[in-house]
Design brief:
- The chain has about 120 residues and is α/β, with parallel strands linked by helices.
- It is built from two helices and six strands, in the order βαββαβββ.
- The strands form two sheets. Strands 2-1-3-4 form a four-stranded mixed sheet, with helices on one face.
- α1 packs antiparallel against α2.
- Belongs to the MIF family.
- This is Macrophage migration inhibitory factor-like protein.
- GO terms for molecular function: phenylpyruvate tautomerase activity.
Length: about 120
């Protein structure tokens, strides 16, 4: 149910993306309190991104979840995901935005229906 879309201008060539995906999956599941089996992570690299007028390493993310999001959880998720990006891709925490969407199950398609 939770889906985290991450886009960065950093090249993913030669990067162990599996470790990023698995760490992000575990982090989102743990903080939101949802099973890992329902967490989706999408990671796109080498995308043109300008932040503050320059193209130094930066990233943008959107996290959609059916429940589980609130001010405290969002703050914890922002810290945890930015830490992963800083450690794994050298994207400074100050060059990462993360937008949160809490939605209803009827707005989430899965398995040929909605949740």
């Amino acid at each position: 149910m939770p889906c985290l879309n991450l886009t960065t201008n950093v090249s993913l060539d030669g990067v162990d993306t599996s470790s990023i995906l698995s760490e992000a999956t575990a982090t989102v599941a743990n903080i939101i309190g949802k099973p890992e089996a329902y967490v989706m992570i999408v990671l796109k690299g080498s995308m043109p991104i300008s932040f503050g007028g320059n193209e130094q390493p930066a990233a943008y993310g959107e996290l959609v979840s059916i429940g589980g999001l609130n001010a405290s959880t969002n703050k914890e998720l922002s810290a945890a995901i930015s830490s992963i990006l800083e450690t794994k891709l050298s994207v400074p925490k100050s060059r990462f935005f993360l937008k949160f969407y809490d939605t209803k199950g009827s707005n989430f398609g899965w398995n040929g229906s909605t949740l």
